Amino acid sequence: MHELGVVFYVIKDVKEVALQNNINKVNSVTLDIGEVSGVIHEQLIDCWDWAKKREPVLEEAVLKINTIKAVTFCEDCKKEYETVAHGKICPYCGSENTYLLEGNEFSIKEIEVPDEDN
Amino acid sequence: MGKVRVIEIHENVFAKNDQKALETRKELALKDILFINVMSSPGSGKTTALSSLINKMKGEYKIGEMDVDIHTDIDARKVSDATGIETLQINNGGLCHIDADMTSRALEEYEKSGKLEDFDIIFLENIGNLVCPAEFDTGAHKNMMILSVPEGDDKPLKYPLMFSICDLVLISKIDTLSFFDFDIQKAKENILRLNPKAKIIPISAKTGEGMDEWQSWIEDCKKNLK
């Protein structure tokens, strides 16, 4: 899949933040990943652990994943339901006239850095 | 262990790519160059279909083609041998997708050699893959894909994202319909269910069927660029 590609995106963004904030070491990076974003967590972490070694500022950074539940909204009966369990068809009224409210996220939530300048 | 400090970022990982893609789209539209992203599985006949379309249109339009193969330039050479047009190989470092950075670098190459302004239409022949390329905005004005008859009419169900982001879906190799259990009607239903706005054209690069309709779809996109 495209896990390695997105890891490069994350690294680029975090490096930029580190540079702007004069940070030379990052302890951890937390991502918000939606349940139906199509990203495989184990693979993402494997790619991260490989790629971070090429970046001194991230060498020791742990990748943390915060999963965001996928929720779908039904336009016909105006109810919300869990996407993973029911997919595109509304479990309340059987309508296919539904759309994803959340669960497709792939963003960098925050990073943790040492609190002292050495 | 020292204390830690948290820096909140809350930035979509794709935000920078989307921004770059937006800029590319704008810049090309200002120059009146139509940029089309062509996606499909490996072996769907992308190179053949594109070559015959380009041969049909090259008298009237100046066409460029960007090609990305992970390990060789065989597709770029095939297209340029078959059509005589300018092709440009994108190096994507072996990744499974093309993003807006890679296309803009390739466009810059054209720009540097002074060729960019000459083009009316540029095709991006994306990597043969129905998953990853769908995730990344390349800066193209239109996304299209090719579903070939041997792949089966259930492909849209297996790769919903790809089918839902495409403006045009070609059903290719329809000259082979009698050899496969491919139900065109069912394929169309599966596609339209995911993407009611998709335009669907059955084609055969071999017999030429559907090629006129594909060409006029492209000409309409070109007209509507400005």
Tally the beta strands of chain A. Answer: 6
Lateral arrangement of strands in the main beta sheet of chain B = 4-3-5-2-6-7-8
Secondary structure tally: strands of chain B: 8
Gross morphology of chain A is elongated
The helix count of chain A comes to: 3
Percent strand of chain B equals: 15-25%
Task: Supply the CATH superfamily name of chain B.
Answer: P-loop containing nucleotide triphosphate hydrolases
User: Termini distance of chain A?
Assistant: 39 Å
Protein described:
The complex is a heterodimer of chains A (118) and B (226). Chain A has one domain (2-112): hypothetical protein PF0899 fold (2-Layer Sandwich), CATH 3.30.2320. Chain A contains 3 helices and 6 strands; from the N terminus they run H-E-H-E-E-E-H-E-E. Chain A has helices at residues 3-20, 41-51, 83-86, and strands at residues 28-34, 62-68, 71-74, 80-82, 98-102, 106-114. In chain A, strands 2-1-6 form a 3-stranded mixed beta sheet, with helices on one face. In chain A, helix 1 packs across helix 2. Chain B is of the alpha/beta class and 226 residues long. Chain B is built from 8 helices and 8 strands, in the order βαβαβαβαββααβαβα. Chain B has helices spanning 15-30, 46-57, 74-83, 100-112, 155-158, 160-165, 184-194, 211-223, and strands at residues 4-12, 34-40, 63-67, 86-89, 121-128, 142-148, 168-172, 199-202. In chain B, helix 7 links the parallel strand 7 and strand 8 (199-202). The radius of gyration of chain B is 18 Å and the shape is globular. The N and C termini of chain B lie far apart (59 Å). The mean pLDDT of chain B is 91. Chain A binds chain B through residues 1-2, 4-6, 8-10, 12-14, 17, 21, 23, 27, 31-32, 38, 96, 105-116, and chain B through 2-14, 16-17, 95-97, 99, 131-132, 135-136, 161, 193.
